[in-house]
Specification:
The complex is a heterodimer of chains A (250) and B (321). Chain A is α/β, with parallel strands linked by helices. Chain A has a single domain, classed as 3-Layer(aba) Sandwich (Rossmann fold), CATH 3.40.50. Chain A has seven helices and 13 strands. Chain A is globular, with a radius of gyration of 21 Å. The N and C termini of chain A lie far apart (58 Å). With 321 residues, chain B is of the alpha/beta class. In chain B, α3 crosses α4 and α5 packs parallel to α9. Classes of the chains: A alpha/beta (250), B alpha/beta (321). Chains A and B meet through α3, α4, β7, β8 and β9 of A and α3, α4, β5, β7 and β8 of B.
């Protein structure tokens, strides 16, 4: 069995985000980057499946981006991915084009299962997994909080607005991860050292026979800030008074 | 623009979130001299079709094969209806239903999609869509390039559509069940019935955070106060991760986005991820033992103290009136 885990490189989530001088992007000069947290969960799930399976399972991590991506792919290798693939692009790629590039990777790698984060915490689009499943005409199980291998496929618990939904999907399939699926491991020092020696395979868009077709054009970007003034009240009585007589919400 | 709204329903009525998305669709139709059509999918839809027709013309895909909302079949039907130049824009409320199903339909329709849109403008024959990124730290204005534009909107950002003077038409569309994909089997839905309003639809939301130590305390403190105010209950991610509250309670960047008239953040410190889900509420109250907690930066009223003492006092004083 082969599991493909597409990942994205995103700014660390506890960083303060500022709009860059161009007014169209964010200032990344001071930002540390990490593997998108949902993709780390996807990697962990794939590695666990390989550890628990009696059959050999190969986990292949994929990134789409430039040289700077190597660091995050090495993290993926240190967490337990067998191989790492970098699809080289020199500019940010939107979910549609990520999905198209991944289709080409799938054609070369023929995985049985793709596990990826439900959303990247930079653009919060929540699209790439669904686009990929649509383009491949594979079943999808999004927002997974539990994944079990069963006869003929997977049983997946999905986190929905209405509660936990359970579906069965046949393989090959695309699964996208939610927060409660697992807690990703920290890579051990020996595995980090081993990951440093591995080769990261590189593929260009030309090799994949694909031209990027942008679908989303950012025409403006602005920072948001709270302009609320917090009035500190000293007692429950005061709070009730404000809610009743000033805000008039209770 | 010819706009197709993918509506969610409970078998009898349109969901509030879909009526808000319809609010967006109606505005855009007026601005572009266009039209709005509502697409319903499911099985046994006569009653909900009549409800939807109060708001717009309705297309109904009614078939046993669509009884449960499975992504591959639903997306195929949506793409068949919206494709081939029939519609210029497909929209829905940004719920888990749409994130799963409408995004897949977007993949079949060319991938020009903007998620969780909070505002829009029609200018120089271009649709400008505003959407938050980086957990709401920035708002981006985007333009979509593709054969069909796919837009999910944040329900709290748009007013619910009003009933039209004249009911719309109802037209059934043919569903060829044998031709639909069949790789996803729905097995069941486990929801925890609280008897309280839905957190995304409530006028008041009472949310608990890390200060709440267990499920019993959550119910006794947050639950009781919510009932006193006719409110929905929500929670921060910490309580969901700890198994104290179910996942559908989570308010935040990756959970539910809410904007009620009153949001009470009780024992919630205010991580960026949580603020992304509630900072557009009209009035925000924070109670926290840490006077420097970031939640106070987005609150209108702040009270420093232990929620285990202050919530019972609040309940008692509200009851006493």
């Amino acid at each position: 069995m082969k599991i493909l885990v597409p990942t994205k490189r995103v700014p660390d989530t506890d960083q303060r985000i500022r709009v860059a001088a161009d007014g169209l992007s964010i200032d990344t000069s001071m930002l540390p980057f990490v593997v998108n947290p949902f993709d780390a969960i996807a990697l962990e799930e794939a590695v666990r499946i390989s550890e628990e399976s009696s059959q050999p399972v190969e986990v292949v991590a994929v990134g789409v981006g430039g040289d700077e991506y190597e660091e995050q792919l090495r993290t993926a290798l240190a967490m337990g991915a067998e191989r790492a693939l970098l699809v080289e692009t020199d500019r940010p790629v939107d979910p549609w084009n990520v999905a198209r590039l991944l289709v080409k990777v799938v054609e070369r790698e023929s995985p049985n299962l793709i596990i990826m984060g439900k959303q990247a915490v930079d653009d919060d689009a929540n699209q790439a997994g669904q686009f990929l499943a649509a383009l491949l005409d594979w079943p999808q199980a999004t927002f997974a909080s539990k994944v079990e291998l069963v006869e003929g496929g997977l049983r997946v618990d999905r986190e929905t607005d209405a509660g936990i939904e359970t579906v069965r999907v046949s393989l090959p399939a695309v699964v996208t991860t939610d927060l409660r699926l697992n807690e990703p491991r920290y890579a051990s020092l020996p595995s980090i050292m081993r990951a440093k020696k591995k080769t990261i395979e590189r593929l260009s868009c030309e090799e994949l026979g694909l031209t990027i077709e942008p679908r989303i054009e950012i025409v403006a970007m602005e920072g948001t800030s709270s302009d609320r003034q917090c009035e500190r009240v000293d007692s429950v009585d005061e709070l009730i008074d404000r809610l009743r007589n000033v805000a008039e919400v209770i | 623009m010819r706009i197709l709204l993918i509506a969610e329903h409970n078998g009898t009525h349109l969901r509030t979130a879909s009526r808000c998305a319809l609010g967006f669709a109606n505005q855009l139709a007026v601005q572009t001299d266009g039209s709005v059509t509502c697409l319903l999918l499911g099985s046994g839809l006569d009653e909900v079709a009549a409800d939807a027709a109060r708001f717009a013309d309705v297309l109904v895909a009614d078939d046993e094969a669509l009884r449960s909302p499975v992504a591959d079949r639903y997306a195929r039907v949506i793409a068949d209806v919206a494709g081939a130049g029939a519609f210029d824009l497909v929209t829905a409320a940004a719920t888990t239903f749409a994130k799963d199903i409408v995004a897949r339909a977007g993949g079949l329709l060319g991938g020009a999609m903007a998620s969780d849109v909070i505002a829009h403008e029609w200018r120089d024959d271009r649709l400008l869509l505003q959407r938050p990124m980086y957990a709401g730290a920035v708002n981006a204005t985007v333009v979509l390039h593709g054969p069909v534009q796919i837009v999910t909107v944040r329900p709290s950002a748009y007013e619910e559509a009003a009933v039209k003077n004249r009911p719309g038409s109802i037209e059934k569309i043919e569903v060829d069940a044998a031709a639909l994909p069949n790789h996803i089997q729905f097995e069941g839905l486990a929801s925890k019935e609280t008897g309280r309003p839905d957190v995304t639809e409530a006028r008041v939301v009472v949310s608990g955070g890390r200060a709440i130590k267990n499920s019993e305390d959550f119910e006794r403190l947050i639950g009781t106060l919510a009932d006193r105010l006719g409110a929905a209950t929500g929670s921060s991610r910490a309580l969901v991760d700890a198994g104290i509250t179910p996942n559908e309670f989570q308010v935040g960047q990756t959970g539910k986005i809410v904007a009620p008239e009153l949001y009470m953040a009780l024992g919630i410190s205010g991580a960026v991820q949580h603020l992304a889900g509630m900072k557009n509420s009209q009035v925000i109250v924070a109670i926290n033992s840490d006077p420097d907690a970031p939640i106070f930066e987005v609150a209108d009223y702040g009270l420093v103290g232990d929620v285990y003492e202050l919530i019972p006092e609040l309940i008692e004083k509200l009851d006493g009136d």
